[in-house]
Amino acid sequence: MKKLLFILLFTPLILFSQENVLNIETIKDEYIEEIYGITYYMGKPYNGVFYRNFENGQLKYKSNYKDGKRSGLEEEYYESGQLEYKTIYKDGKENGLYEKYYENGKLEHKANYKDGKKNGFSERYFEMISYNSKQTTKTVSKMVYLNGIGVTVS
């Protein structure tokens, strides 16, 4: 009797706590739609992970959803497997550190977001190679943002 009670009480917990993980390329168009910023899967706001692969099977994109909105870590990769960018979402808006990388793995851009707008320091990293002198010049462009409005920092 105790065993049956245990099964009846905890089976729904286990079944309903599992996260959906779906490859968005294999989903039929009629099963997924976005309305006013909410992503629906089979008529309900989506909870789980959407991902997409390159033709070679390598992971291309992965994003987490909660109540139909992006929530948590989102990552995209180059076909080589190198990370292209990563960012954090909260309630469907970028919120936290965004980092973008060159295909060689070096940092290209980093910025902070709050409620979907750049907020705080933003930096872009450039490497310019002079073919005549064969010298590499590294440059950093810095800006400060407040609610999406930026000012260049020297």
Radius of gyration: 21 Å
Number of continuous helical runs: 1
Number of domains: 1
Straight-line distance between termini: 73 Å
The strand count comes to 14
The percent range for strand residues is: over 45%
CATH class: Alpha Beta
Tell me what you see in this structure.
The chain has 154 residues and is mainly beta. The protein has one domain (19-153): Outer Surface Protein A, domain 3, CATH 3.90.930. 10% of the residues lie in helices and 60% in strands. The protein contains one helix and 14 strands, in the order αββββββββββββββ. The strands form two sheets. Strands 1, 5, 6, 7, 8, 9, 10, 11, 12, 13 and 14 form an eleven-stranded mixed beta sheet that branches. Strand 13 (135-146) and strand 14 (149-153) form a beta hairpin. The longest helix is centred in the N-terminal third of the chain and has 16 residues, at 2-17. The N and C termini lie far apart (73 Å).
What would a concise description of this structure say?
This protein is mainly β. Helix content is 10%, strand content 60%.
Explain the layout of strands and helices:
Layout: H1 2-17, E1 20-23, E2 32-35, E3 38-41, E4 44-45, E5 48-53, E6 59-66, E7 69-77, E8 83-90, E9 93-94, E10 96-101, E11 107-114, E12 117-130, E13 135-146, E14 149-153
